[in-house]
Amino acid sequence: MSTPVVRLAMHSMFGRTRALLLYALPVLLVVLALLVRSLGGDESPDRAESLLFIYGLGIVVPVVALLATTTLINSELDDGSILYLLTKPLSRVSIVASKVVVVLLAVLTCGALPLGVAGYVMVGTADHVALAGLAGGAVAGVAYTGIFTALMTVLQRSVIAALLYWLVLESTLASLLGPARWLSARSWGSAVLESVSTVSAGKPDVPVWYALLAAPVALVAGVLLAARRLSTMTLSDE
Amino acid sequence: MNDTGTVEPRPPQALDPRPVGSVLELQAVSRWYGNVVAVNDVSMQIGPGITGLLGPNGAGKSTLLSMMAGLLPPSAGTVTIDGHPVRGDVSAYRNIGLVPVQEQLYDYLTGTQFVRLNADLQRVPDPRAATERAVALVEMIDAADRRISTYSKGMRQRIKVASALVHDPQVLLLDEPFNGMDPIRRRQMMDMLTRLAREGRTIVFSSHILEEVEQIARQVEVVVSGRHAASGDFAQIRRMMTDRPNQYLVRSSDNRRLATLLLADTSVRGVRLRGQQALEVETDDLGRFGHVLPRAAREHDIRILEVTPTDDSLESVFAYLVGA
Questions:
Q1: Where does the chain cross the membrane (chain A) (predicted)?
Q2: A82 in reach of chain B (CB within 8 A)
């Protein structure tokens, strides 16, 4: 990894007003969590888990990952500013890895961590809901980072490809076709969430061991594919 | 000039009085994307001094520069700097400075921060001093602490050059560096590049504007449709371009009579009446034709209503060179 690239990425990610977008959804999650807590009752753990699953894993984590990868990878490829990094004595893998580390930091702090905070706000430490939200969010965040990085670089930097993955494969196909869940970062996150939480005793969509393995593999594959794509960049490649 | 109409590359020492410097060499370089050939069997040797890479839009200049900068692997052939392949060894970038055409920089940084970033990425021994030196070189000290987002086009261009020079490379590659610059800034940039070339650097810049290349480049490489159309010093290239047949559309008060008069002169290769409205004239000697036409009109009391070049676009000049 390259320290100057990480420093630049940190500035780009957190030092600009667009960072406010990253904070909007997690803030809303915590607000909803406060609302759930105010409702009280015996169903609180169920409601808490549902909120973390539907809004947390379903929206907050993928949207934060999408915003973060767009900020650090897609926009620099689109406007060509990444050429200033590519023409330096740094390997392509090192450049991508440095950026992905910062994307991951954003996803974990603005995606996974708020799930844990929201869980704690709703039910404290009961039923391990907070821990489950944190762990599930982290696994899904790692996976989304790798998948979006790959899709945005390999498929002509397409944000649309990332959106199709999220909206079509995950939100539609995965609920209709069981095997599609094996390719779904959300399913991997929810498998971990459900295994840590003691609220529901349902069977996860995919085995936990698979989710724990698939997420880092997706991350590494995303870095390598993106680095490979960057190795054939041209000056007019806007 | 060889029998294919190109001029053999000038040996590096002939380009600059200082023999020290890097030599960028392309040997039988081609690049294709599927069935599309972007660059076709190009060989050239570029030594210290300023070399203009001239060609119309879409000719393959950016692809060539991308390969010179090691960004893109050639599909065939080799690109070397001082005998070392540019591609595959990122340490080659210690000797290369690149100024891309894209205006987008890291706009949220100040000029100083941007140049310093490049110094840090190049791991220069004293990045702070190198940054100050590079910023001073492009005369941007006053604006260096402003955000790049507030810079004009010319200022962006200069800070890009500073970032490319911060590690003191021997080879500087610039993609369309004068794009959108006003005449004053263009002149300043040209003076700066000339100064850098005098220091022994190998500078290559691409352009589709003949006059830009003419003003600073001593060596010109012409690329058309991915092919190396011509190579040599500017005088030779200019001669090839001006010696080509030129076509004009002429409207006058007596087209038929004017046609007869023009055909009598050796500078005119052919004249064709376009109905009763105009003449199409082809000339081999533009300078002489410029005198013959008004003289003939004046002496025979013919009024010239319009003279329009019909093939004066740069594309037609390039097309002629390809066929040369």
A1: 20-40, 52-75, 96-123, 129-151, 163-183, 208-227
A2: no
